[in-house]
């Protein structure tokens, strides 16, 4: 599709000339913004608006706020120090201000002839010599003022606002502005027609509330946000419907067998929440379409035993099970824990990780390919080309958000098979100890079935959290000694150094050396990501066996490490860590009978965000509350790990402020799909072109 009529001519008029096959230079800039045809241009909506409807006196200008004055040029000159720049001073009856351009053209110098009256628009700010405007816009004084707010659009290098406005106006004249929502839904949710909303946002009428437009609370914005969220929800509903048309092996939950034997062999009783979630997963596995369930549970809530019951059901029905974890420490912990539960019941297990020797790896691959290994646990080594499964029916991804989309799909493809002419794909269980806030779950995870373990096993005591300045380091060392004298163990987590892995490693080594010197009578171990796997396993086993009193570690111990005797966690420079990481680290203690403490040692002064993070950790141990505060602080892009993907998660709606509209959009999905399928199709065509695949990932 080409852009609005006249776009090519616009490029020529600006001297861009014709480009290669991609169209004119201007068209290629439009395409960089995802603007190909009229339907794209009309929903390229303003970022903000400028009020150019009035002239202010210089004395009325407010620093930091755009303003517009008409004033006489007192003088102008090109200054060469500290760098070449154009400088001018203008005045009206109420005062004077300086104007400054670091990049300028001869035409601007001519405009600034002494004695000329100009209209000047820009943002007032404090400069070295008083108030000034940097790179203000100049135009002739006395020309007619706009009657409405001026839209400012998202743009790209070398694409001026004037070109965007012209192209959008052309698109508004050409595009189909018919409504994709039936009248019944417009009335139900009090929404204005689409055409009205679009015209208002591109050309706000005189008297339109600047504040409502800026804060996206104007009825026109409410309609657009509803449309965007409805399109997203329709897309996810389509994905769910498509999944229900796929076929998976039926893995029924029989009355006895392996799951019953597992339950009878456990030295503990499942919590009510665990029993509920086991039933939900069991019902999914017995269906002929693939399970796609997210299992959420706070740190220490007992997700692994739930996964063991899912595995037992799949194995009892004749399928293999693969469990993939993002780190070798976590994968190994799953291997030992699941093996301890299932091996005595006759289940053959296999371990696959990058550190495996050639002979052991060959034996594991043969056991997996031949079907002898019923439960296969490992890292990303599971998705390597040489790994072939005999009949993979269930895959379990722990900390699933740490895997890329391609990695998840690759493991799923390992289980694809053709039975009686039907393509079967395995069931999938995603586990996460980072709870997903409700609004995020309602939007970006709406096509998943979600199970929540919302209670901790009996005996899990809340961890006491303390905030201590690093000026009180001696006091912290005293706490470590006191805890070890009681026969307990402690973690000392090194500061996060994001800029350099080598620097972070050195920090860990230096911290270990400092603690060995400060605590000479203590057995102190060190574990970090660069340690050879065998050495890492040796240190961790020594810590589990009580042969190490204090473990100095980087964030490799963030998930999966379970040492009930460890009752003290010191996190150094806690202000450098994210909320989710701090909560995960804190979850490494409080796993035994003793009261546990997490010390967040920080270095003042704290930034505003760091202060809010540490306050959240101090005030609550609830993972869902922590996750909600994390979302509020970081936004959904960082929360989902796609901040730098180059794609926006939501262009217009906000998860922080538009939860009510999310609920309305969810409510409208079945109405659109069941009663107005043509409207639903048109709505998706308008809003989801080029974005559907992204939302699915």
Structure write-up:
The chain is an alpha/beta fold and 697 residues long. The chain folds into 4 domains: 1-53 and 154-176, no CATH class; 54-140, Nucleic acid-binding proteins (OB fold (Dihydrolipoamide Acetyltransferase, E2P)), CATH 2.40.50.140; 257-453, P-loop containing nucleotide triphosphate hydrolases (Rossmann fold, 3-Layer(aba) Sandwich); 464-620, Rossmann fold (3-Layer(aba) Sandwich). Helix content is 40%, strand content 19%. It has 25 helices and 23 strands. The strands form 5 sheets. Strands 11-12-10-13-16-9-17 form a 7-stranded parallel β-sheet, sandwiched between helices. It is globular and about 95 Å long. The model is unreliable at 5-22, 641-648 and 692-697 (pLDDT under 50). Residues 463-632 form the Helicase C-terminal domain. It catalyses: Couples ATP hydrolysis with the unwinding of duplex DNA by translocating in the 3'-5' direction; ATP + H2O = ADP + phosphate + H(+).
What's the structural blueprint in terms of helices and strands?
Elements: H1 7-13, H2 25-32, H3 38-42, E1 48-50, E2 66-79, E3 85-92, E4 95-101, H4 106-111, E5 117-127, E6 130-134, E7 137-140, E8 150-152, H5 161-174, H6 183-189, H7 194-202, H8 210-214, H9 219-245, H10 257-265, H11 272-285, E9 292-297, H12 303-316, E10 320-324, H13 328-342, E11 349-352, H14 358-370, E12 375-378, E13 392-398, H15 405-414, E14 417-419, E15 422-424, E16 427-432, H16 438-443, E17 449-453, E18 464-469, H17 473-485, E19 489-493, H18 501-518, E20 524-527, H19 533-544, E21 550-553, E22 566-572, H20 579-586, E23 597-602, H21 608-619, H22 623-639, H23 659-675, H24 677-687, H25 692-696
Parallel strand pairs: 4-6, 9-16, 9-17, 10-12, 10-13, 11-12, 13-16, 18-23, 19-21, 19-22, 20-21, 22-23
Antiparallel strand pairs: 1-8, 2-3, 2-5, 3-4, 5-6, 5-7, 14-15
